[in-house]
Specification:
It contains eleven helices and five strands, in the order ααααββαβαααααββα. It folds into two domains: about 55 residues; about 170 residues, Glutaredoxin (3-Layer(aba) Sandwich). About 65% of the residues lie in helices and about 10% in strands. The protein is α+β, with helices and mostly antiparallel strands and about 250 residues long. It has a five-stranded mixed sheet with strand order 1-3-2-4-5, with helices on both faces.
Amino acid sequence: MFMAGGGLAIAAAAGIWFMQTGGATASDDAAKAALAAGIDSREQAAIEAIVRDYILKNPEIIPEAVEILQNRQKSAAINEIRTDIEAPFANAAFAGNPNGDVVVVEYSDFACPYCKQTTADIDRVLKEDKNIKVVFRELPILSEASNDAALMALAAAKQGKYFAFHKTMFATGRPTPSTIESAAKEVGINLAEARKFIATPEAQKELQNNIEVARKLQFTGTPAFVVGNQTEVGAVGYDGLKQMIAKARGSK
């Protein structure tokens, strides 16, 4: 049996051994799986001994296997929400090529210094790669002022001035009532219309949806990125963004 189809037998046994570590129910399931595969109890014990010995001698395969599993779970989670997160709010909260072959989704907070730092990296990528679409999503988690700035950004999107406000708000300074209003006026936002929109359920729902996605994808801060099936949290820098884009483009 080890000679003929040995790889399949050992792979099955590896699964059996891991299942057995989960308790009595998993052990019963493992025994049934072995029986269904034509492995009797003595053969199962022998294979398990080999697998255990291999794992103990090569423990590095455990974190490798866990990482592979986590990446698969992450990809599945992204695929469930990809259409929603890659669709810019009001069809305006984006920059770059609207039909780009790779979509970079950035979750940011106007009070986050690392998000501010990232604006230069995003600008550089957009200037150099004319086939990229960057979708911006508001994730105000640092302060009440973050939330106010995020709502104004959504209002800017409704008026077709999102990206101008996004860049101006970060350049103006940390969000406060005065800096938010200053940035809005600088890019020509109709403040009366903006305030009406900010009070609507649509605005609040957008922010709540973004928070729920952040929880689902286990973001621990801002900025956070989704590119293809990859996620990264933190200021990954220009090189990091380029690597993520290249990997996403290569997987197409």
